[in-house]
Amino acid sequence: MVKREQHRGPDDNGLCSNGPATLGMCRLAIIDPANGHQPMHSPDGRFSLIFNGAIYNHRELRPGLTARGWNFRTHCDTEVLLAAYALDGAACLGRLRGMFAFAIWDATEQKLFAARDPLGIKPLYYARLPDSGVVFASELNALLAGGQIPREIDPASVGEYLAWFSVPAPRTIYRGISNLPPGHCLTTDATGRTKTAAWWHLPPPAASGRVTTNYHDFIHGLRHQLEDSIRAHRVADVPVGAFLSGGMDSTAIVGLMTKSGASRLKTFSLIFGESGFSEQASARLAAQAFGTEHHEELITGARVAADLPRILASFDQPTGDGINTYYASQTARQGGVTVALSGLGGDELFGGYPSFRDLPRLNRVLPFWRRLPAGLRGRIVAFLGDRPDTRSRKLADFLAHARDLHELAALQRRVLPETVRLSLLSPNVRAQTQRLGPNHPMLDDFAFELIGADPFQVISAWELRTYMADVLLRDSDVFSMAHSLELRVPFVDRVLLEWLWPQPTWFKYDPRRQKKALADATADLVPAEIRNRRKQGFALPFPRWMLAELSPFLEETFSPVSLSGCPWLQASEAAAMWQEFKTGRDPRAWSRVWTLAVLINFANRRTLP
Amino acid sequence: MKILLLSPEMFLAEGGIARIMRLYLKALCEVAGPAGRVDSLVLNDNPARDKRLGRYGNKRLGEHLGCSRSKLRFIRQAIRLGRRADLLICGHLHHLMIAWLARLFNARLRYYLVAHGIEVWRPYSWLEKCAMSGAHRILCVSEYTRHQILRFHPGLTPERVVVVPNTLDPYFSDRDNVVPSAIPFAGPRLLTVSRLLSTDTYKGVDTMIEAMPLVRREFPLARLRVIGTGDDAPRLQELATRLGVAGAVDFLGSVNDEILRAEYAACDLFALPSRREGFGLVYLEAMTYGKSCLGARAGGAPEVINDTVGQLVEYGNIPDLAAAVADLVRHPRDSEVVRRHADSFAFPTFTRRLAAALT
């Protein structure tokens, strides 16, 4: 199992057994590289820790722990975590600032405690074994390498994947393996009795105390919080760089890094030959403005086609996204950095997606829509659902299934409309998927957490909890770790989020100006051309590549032989989807076809060791 | 204290709402105080007094009127009785507008809503929201129902939406009066109790039938006993036939309390893997007989079923459901622990909670 995770930590590894518990770890050494070997043990031998991630405030926590009698042997954040848990138990989680997934064995109480950071930057998977044991790891492939869990794809997870671009936690693509949700912890005793619980929730919608009362104070406060987050995320004893796409978020990150004293900063961006995708000019403008050592990497369809086997082999469960992160991470690592900062999370925090504007409007229409006669509503939904374009089908899904803003916010992230998803599944799986319904599996949990929240907070939270946690952060972890790069996300920071969350929405968001708050808070850093530009996103020219260089891969993937390896799919429907895309009537359909292709390829590869 | 109780039904049917409204009547008669009076108005019941009324009302019970489904009569009587009441307890959201109307004729009237389950898990009309906002308190059967109400009506003050969990009927849970089943069974006997309506397929009876082939691989003599009637019964029977387990699934239809209690007492496991149970009174009934319970991890069921009394599975996951059935048949929960858990929902506790909520 440890060998299977070698790419995540090529600098060191360790293994130890203590009674019924065995802990193993591969380390990517970032803080105090010379020390910090893991598993790390407490001086009395009671606690043994393995830890994936970084505790950014480890220097601030150290004096308090020293004062309480802990005698530090290293300068490593791992030892700070060990000390914090040894002295305070699970209560230490609330004081940690960082990204983490860790497990600690308490030899005295014969209990394992594991936890994951609040927003899900670092993953933790676990499975119960038939002999009452529990195994856990940062990647599914490592769990499977133990040989005790069958590589059996869960048909219910296939249904979820086709809806959401990835398999939402707590499921995974494999039957019997669970994904510990963000902000959750797990305890298991020597008999294998396992419990999970949430240790962190989003702040109450109207938390009092630190709410600013005028826009000037808000922007001043936001700037302070952003600088603080950047300062925290730069903590490392190895070279730190940044992804720079040329968009608002990454430019702000690089600007703030420069402002906080980063010298000879290395920045990385991807460029494409195809017009309309590259943000080369903006990225260069930003790099010039901040004086960074800028690296550009040309990505072509031919290169992606050649690298595809390696890319597909690097992820442990299918995802319809993330190839841009694969190349950006590769470029950064080859460019000489071990840690890179990314602007991921800016859209979720500052309302960068069109959903922040569109969904509240649609939500206002829903009460009137419900007053229409059921027969008429059915005919309208059927009419929209039969239209070939993606927008109409999505609207049909909204009107057919959404009852409030929570359901709108969840459904707007669907890849395949419900009717298409069901038609792709074999009859047995279809029946099970139909029973579970079209809504997100965590609908109740998330909606209840957001009682009393305003529309902006509701949409922001759904973006944070679903697409960001299950797709963006998961892909970022898998693809950055594939290149042994530690990717850090200063916008996905608990301290920043807890400050920002209760602030008045009209300070944070203006539908007429994209990411107004972030733009105003970094107005002295981010060039006006970038602040005033429309959002482009970190996208690849996939629709074109799929009809050209990637076409042979897709032809093979959608062939009868390949589809026969997917008993839970309706092969004819899957092949028809690819054929339809080739006619080119709806280029927006590319993500659906790609999502399906990745799943089929994954199913055919899963039998390989 | 003068109290008026509005119920959709009480003795006409044996559904969960009817059963719990009887207990509301009984509890209100106890909390009304020595000089108190409780009037009861039931929309669907017949005007004739049911012989069971004596069990649920005491000398403080005043008028008890059935309206034979006449909404006009129900509204007229509610306004008449509401004029002399201090409190009005409304047993269904659909009648809350009537409570709101009654207050127009009696300014000192405080009205309450009893929120059971799926009837309140939805968006509300403007009028419903107004009526809910005017309620002194909303009494929810579970924390899950409370959350759903606050989700769909975020304007409500959270402190006014309180949880009063359902309770067991003291008469029903009298274990000494159970007549044992005459039919012996060689294999494990699984019991499910639910209405079988095509509008309520979320109850999960079909998933239990679908799990039977897998269950019978491990327990070839296992039988599923289904109690309840409705227009979905033919589909379920056809499903059992199609899966080759028709001989192992007994559709008992609607049964009287005596047979129902005997079935609870004789089963090895009670299973209702429902997706949308507001509370799940049937789980409590089964627990009274010390039986392990299997439910779905959804709705209010997790507030009633914990690890010590049974298991929760993901709704609709047939292999997991079959595995949980097998596990609970092999390792049934300690019946004394299960009974003690059921006792925590006993009627005296319910009465105390209700009295506190009405202050």
What would you note in describing this structure?
The complex is a heterodimer of chains A (609) and B (359). Chain A is of the alpha/beta class. Helices cover 45% and strands 14% of the residues of chain A. Chain A contains 27 helices and 16 strands. In chain A, the strands form 4 sheets. Chain A has a 6-stranded antiparallel β-sheet with strand order 3-4-5-6-10-11, with helices on one face. In chain A, strands 14-13-12-15-16 form a 5-stranded parallel β-sheet, with helices on both faces. In chain A, strands 8-7-9 form a 3-stranded antiparallel β-sheet. In chain A, a hairpin with a 4-residue loop joins β5 and β6. The mean pLDDT of chain A is 90. Chain B is α/β, with parallel strands linked by helices and 359 residues long. Chain B has helices spanning 16-31, 53-56, 71-82, 96-105, 126-134, 143-152, 205-218, 233-242, 257-266, 281-288, 318-330, 335-343, 347-358; strands at 2-7, 37-42, 61-66, 87-90, 110-115, 137-140, 161-163, 189-193, 223-227, 249-253, 269-272, 293-296, 310-313. In chain B, α4 crosses α5 and α10 crosses α12. The N and C termini of chain B lie close together (11 Å). The model of chain B has no long low-confidence stretch (mean pLDDT 92). The interface between A and B is medium-sized, with 16 and 20 residues.
From the structure above, extract its key features.
heterodimer, A: 609 residues, alpha/beta, Glutamine Phosphoribosylpyrophosphate, subunit 1, domain 1, Rossmann fold, 4 domains, five-stranded parallel sheet, 27 helices, globular, B: 359 residues, 2 domains, seven-stranded parallel sheet, six-stranded parallel sheet, 13 helices, 13 strands, 38% helix, elongated
